[in-house]
Protein: Response regulator
Amino acid sequence: MSDAPHILVVDDHKEIRESVKRFLEKNGMRAGTARDAHDAEAKLAIGNYDLMVLDVMMPGESGLSLCQRLSAERALPIIMLTALGDDTDRIVGLEIGADDYLAKPFNPRELLARIKAVLRRSERKEKLAGGFAGKRLRFAHLVLDSDSRVLADESGNETRLTSADFKLLIVLLERARVVLSREQLLDLTAGRSAGPLDRTIDNQISRLRRKIEPDILQPKIIATVRNGGYCLSADVEVLG
Structure:
């Protein structure tokens, strides 16, 4: 049982978090609960969790705000629980680092399936990034520390990347000078397919460009390929 995935369920409704906890434990997982963002951070400080199930709407700090902060600090997979039909929360959550979402009310079996899928994707990403783990990577005028997720330019100015930005940049660095479609990028970073109006990747590319491009109006590091997608137009050097 000690090797079972450890899930933190964060929801201000006691009956929801306790019922989810019981269901996960019945299905071979370990589970802890937290009633709000403050409680969640306290639990994370003393326990090792493999994934967080996080409600968007909570008193005090919202789930979206907590997700954004955690994504900038640690590589913890997060599944957001959103209100039925609330596309804004869903899209924002995915853009700031959430790995998946599920609308309330939900079937516990679907939540379990999504947890297992996100954990599998997380394991695959760790294996794919294995060649870059613990490495410093130079591209264009920048150096990325893959352990700390800190990006530094030639003048020594540093930027800490969010989880979502880091995932996207690693995918591009692993496939430097290869054109990747929006669908491929979404699959590689989030393990899902794009809907007809899904602008998640475009928004993430725009945000990442603001952190790495000398001239955001004329981006040269991440190039847009007409009718193709995006491409990292720089060579990557592993510094060790």
Summary: The chain is about 40% helix and 20% strand.
